[in-house]
């Protein structure tokens, strides 16, 4: 995913009132032979520091150069405080908070309904192969269904085959549309 481009393109999407109900109890993925149960929860203002560490790892993964080291934290804090995005955190027993997802609420002109963009999904190296990424994805889809959105869209880098396999295994279909971006700077 061109995280920088997508984040820039989606950062000012307004937040409709479709997800204004209090968050349910954290979802837990069942323990499996490959690892312990993963719990997923919505991030609040008290979670900004933990989310920011993961967000910085995500930006590093996509080789985004950040001049101000506090910018990722400030960006997330503002999105959470203004309810401009849904930020989810994945916790794994004995490993802590190892993953995050960030969803922007938008609209689909073609379906005449609300649509979500799963803009960011990242699991730190110590949380990989625990099911944290899949649990985050399941929680995004569960909440989207509950909110009645038309669908969830995402992008990933052409060479991120691990993520592509996960998304396709979970029912995401590669579209034939070309994505364009004009960098304003």
Plain-language structure description:
The protein is α+β, with helices and mostly antiparallel strands and 185 residues long. It has five helices and six strands; from the N terminus they run H-E-E-H-H-E-E-E-H-E-H. It has a six-stranded mixed sheet with strand order 1-2-3-4-5-6, sandwiched between helices. It is globular and about 40 Å long. It starts with a helix and ends in a 16-residue tail after the last helix.
Low-confidence stretches: 1-26, 29-33
Q: Write down how many β-strands occur, each being a DSSP E stretch of 2 or more residues.
A: 6
Shape: globular
| SSE sequence, one letter per element | HEEHHEEEHEH
Q: What is the mean pLDDT?
A: 84
Could you give the order of strands across the largest sheet?
1-2-3-4-5-6
* Strand residue percentage: 15-25%
Structural class, from helix and strand content? alpha+beta
Strand count, sense and closure of the main sheet? 6 strands, mixed
Q: Give the radius of gyration.
A: 16 Å
Terminal Cα separation, in Å? 18 Å
Q: Roughly how much helix do the residues carry, as a percent range? A: 25-40%
Can you lay out the helices and strands and say which pair or pack?
Blueprint lengths: L2 H8 L16 E3 L8 E5 L5 H14 L9 H11 L3 E8 L3 E13 L4 E11 L8 H16 L4 E3 L6 H9 L16
Parallel strand pairs: 5-6
Antiparallel strand pairs: 1-2, 2-3, 3-4, 4-5
Helix pairs in contact: 2-3
Task: Kindly list the characteristics that best describe this protein.
31% helix; 5 helices; 185 residues; single chain; alpha+beta; six-stranded mixed β-sheet
């Amino acid at each position: 995913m061109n995280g920088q481009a997508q984040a820039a393109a989606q950062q000012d999407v307004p937040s409709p009132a479709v997800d204004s109900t209090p968050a349910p109890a954290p979802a837990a993925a069942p323990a499996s032979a490959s690892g312990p149960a993963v719990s997923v929860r919505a991030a609040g203002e008290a979670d900004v520091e933990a989310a920011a560490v993961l967000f910085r790892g995500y930006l590093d993964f996509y080789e985004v150069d950040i001049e101000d080291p506090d910018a990722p934290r400030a960006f997330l804090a503002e999105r959470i405080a203004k309810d401009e995005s849904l930020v989810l955190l994945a916790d794994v027993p004995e490993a802590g908070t190892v993953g995050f997802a960030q969803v922007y609420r938008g609209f689909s002109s073609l379906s005449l309904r609300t649509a979500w963009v799963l803009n960011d999904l990242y699991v730190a190296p110590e949380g990989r192969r625990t099911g944290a990424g899949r649990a985050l994805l399941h929680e995004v889809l569960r909440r989207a269904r509950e909110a009645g959105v038309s669908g969830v869209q995402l992008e990933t880098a052409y060479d991120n085959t691990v993520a592509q396999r996960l998304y396709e295994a979970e029912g995401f279909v590669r579209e034939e549309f070309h994505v364009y971006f004009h960098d304003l700077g």
